[in-house]
Amino acid sequence: MAHRQALQQLARILGRQRLAQRLGLPGPLPDRLTPDQVTALQALVEEHIQELVQAMLEEAAACDDVIDAASALAYLDDRLAFWESFLSEGQKERIRVGFRAYASRWQ
To answer: Cβ of 14: how many Cβ atoms within 10 Å?
Structure first.
């Protein structure tokens, strides 16, 4: 079930229709993706990686548990771990780098 929840979160950020079209999903989000669908999702993430960074910054700012840069980065690491099945290591690192550039200003 966590797999589907992670996919739902990415669909919310990237756009449900855009994700469904790219993955060839005619109906509801599946419980599991095929290897080809994971590849397609990674390509979609790559095209919109800055949107993921921005969404993670907004979510961290809205989270009561995030009070400084360290807690913001911990929040991001939890999210990236939740999306483990869908993101490449390079994508996770690019998201971290983009996030850190803004989170370092957190007071």
So the answer is: 19
Residue type (1 letter), 39: T
Half-sphere exposure of 48 (CA within 13 A, CB side): 18
As a dihedral over the C-alpha atoms of residue 30, residue 4, residue 73, residue 45, rounded to 10 degrees, the angle is 0
| 73-101 pLDDT tens trace | 999 999 999 999 899 999 999 999 999 98
The values of phi and psi at residue 59, to 5°, are -65, -40
- Give whole-number Cα distances, 11 to 45, 70, 82, 84, 97, in Å: 10, 27, 14, 15, 22
The conformation of residue 27, written as its DSSP 8-state character, comes to S
Q: Which amino acid is at 5?
A: Q
Burial (Cβ within 10 Å: 0-12, 13-18, ≥19) of residue 95: buried
